[in-house]
Amino acid sequence: MALFDFLQHLLGLQKPSATTARERLQLVLAHDRSDLNPELLERMRREILEVVQKYVEIDIESGDVSLATDDRVTALVANLPIRRARPLPNNSPETSSKSNQCGQEVRALVENQEMPQPSPTQIAEVLEVQDAAIEPNSSP
Amino acid sequence: MTATSARVILICSGKGGVGKTTLTANLGIALARLGESTVVLDADFGLRNLDLLLGLENRIVYNAQDVLEATCRLEQALVKHKQEPNLSLLPAGNARMLDWLTSDDMKKIVGMVAERANFVLIDCPAGIETGFRNAAAAAKEAIVITTPEMAAVRDADRVIGLLHSQEVAPIQMVLNRVRPKMVANQEMLGVSDVTDILALPLLGLVLEDEQVITSTNRGEPLTLQGTLSPAGRAYMNVARRLRGEEVALIDPTRERQGLRARLMGKIRRTTGLF
Predict the structure, then answer these.
(1) B168 FRET partner, CA 20 to 30 A, in A42, A135, B9, B58?
(2) For position B51, which CATH number holds?
(3) ipTM greater than 0.85, yes or no?
(4) Overall average pLDDT of the B74-98 stretch
């Protein structure tokens, strides 16, 4: 151990590298392992479509729900072209105005159940990826 | 020795360079020394090295491919080890081969070999592609070898996932190249860190040992020596545990090279004696 590292370690400024390695590994493996089996994904796809169909009329044939792994976060990406909004009694103005446009994407992110409680720095990283995943498609 | 009870064990790691072939060679010799008739199968033909580690590189004439094509008989392709006649090597193919042996071919050749041995060890190619999958198809159980490094542990995890899906069981783990001093200083993942993360039973623990390199230079696995070096002992213990013996694991935080061992090592190096 270099003297500088040693001093930092002594002063409690730096975690031992083995701890960092363990934390990083646990996080990365949670994601590596999260590939859902096709059956479960199909069940989830059907349920998501059912929920979305309560609010809008969607094109089921061209709809697509899949997992995208961005090396840190497993994202569930749903691409559901909307035909038109369903006239619901308490439809908020915001939803109706947005849902009138066709081909709009609905995106959701799932976090892995097994994922350990992230430390503050890791939360920041996860949020960054989530933002990046949503931004390109969030504009109607 | 019953023909059908041969244990077919896949030795794999995912990542290359973590010690698969060294483990296969040492375990093969160790099992042979314990009286088990053993065949080591080098499933990697493009980058095969098991012959080198066993010092058998000049004695290979045929390979598994030749046996499958009936160019030769199985006995002709099996290369018997000089000092340990209980051990034979069978290379899967040569570097001129274009394709991996199919999983059916692997099953067929392993089935043939299993009829004449107690243990069949398959030295798996690195990676998780065709070569690995075809080799895994022929195995009943597996030993995953890894080092306490992040990349090795991550790749081992992928391999374990695939082995589970191919219903290979039991899967045990050998942790290789542990540096006790670094573990004690918390600068290297410890044994329990790795076993917890990978959730596998630990079959063996091998400390970093320079003699692994010198033994490779000579083509004489460590387990062949009369007095065993620390790594040699560790490999021998893996063999014993595989056979069901209860052998206690060493404690890496206590296992520092003693003064005597260091002195003897120095004398050995400077004088070139024994």
Answers:
(1) A42
(2) 3.40.50.300
(3) no
(4) 91
